[in-house]
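Hi all, long-time lurker, first post. I run a small reading group and we've been trying to get comfortable going from sequence to structure in the token notation. Rather than ask abstract questions, I figured I'd post a concrete chain and ask someone more experienced to write out its structure so we can walk through it together at our next meeting. Sequence below, copied exactly:
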Amino acid sequence: MDKVVATALEAVADVPDGATLAVGGFGLSGVPNVLIEALHERGVRELGVVSNNCGAMESGLAVLLAAGRIARVTGSYIGANKEFARQYLAGELEVEMIPQGTLAERLRAGGAGIPAFYTPAGVGTQVAEGGLPWRYDGAGGVTLASPPKEVRDFDGTPYVLERGIRTDFALVRAAKGDRHGNLVFNKSARNFNPLAAMAGRVTIAEVEELVEPGAIDPDAVHLPGVFVQRVVALSPAQANAKMIEKRTVSAPAADGRVSG
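-- Answer (accepted) --
Happy to help. Here is the structure in token form:
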């Protein structure tokens, strides 16, 4: 039952080229940076990534993206990641954009063993009708577009069929975890992390604080250890290395005090 692995490199040692990964985090919050850096160090290529976004500020998945290690992204947000946009428009990267709530439910459904579900999100748009550009040719043309999806009427309302997502591996970051893999996420880091963890066939969690089994109140567990296969304890420096995406400050008032 002890799922602790000594190092991040050891934890990702069997991730092969071409693997699919569900990765937790949103912006800079709850991103498994140490595991991602270990994958980068190993030189794994042609990865298929499922994550809300593909990194920011040259951290997280942006490390793998900039190195040309990602072949396909399934996500819901490009944001200010200029390299992501450049690779997508240049035809170097295949991208499937999904409504954010649909992406979350597709991950959860995959982890819960639900093969597909119906949702009203995307009905009447290219999400359902097809034609969203998955890959460009680098000259403004589309070489691969999304296919149409089944739409079915329930009680007079149309719904589109979306499939659950399963991936070969999942990488997540938790505030606390025990040796059995039970995890607790802190505030906004409890975003896509539990869902990504559920979707992975092999889930690897980096934890800021490792505790012994029984130290976490069962009612406080956000993700039970049944979904987690490997746990990596972060060093204090790794646990405290947290970036701020956009730092804003208030202008000082006339009397020298900072207005709030």
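A couple of things your group might point at:
Residues 100-112 form the longest helix (13 residues).
The first strand starts at residue 20 and ends at 23.
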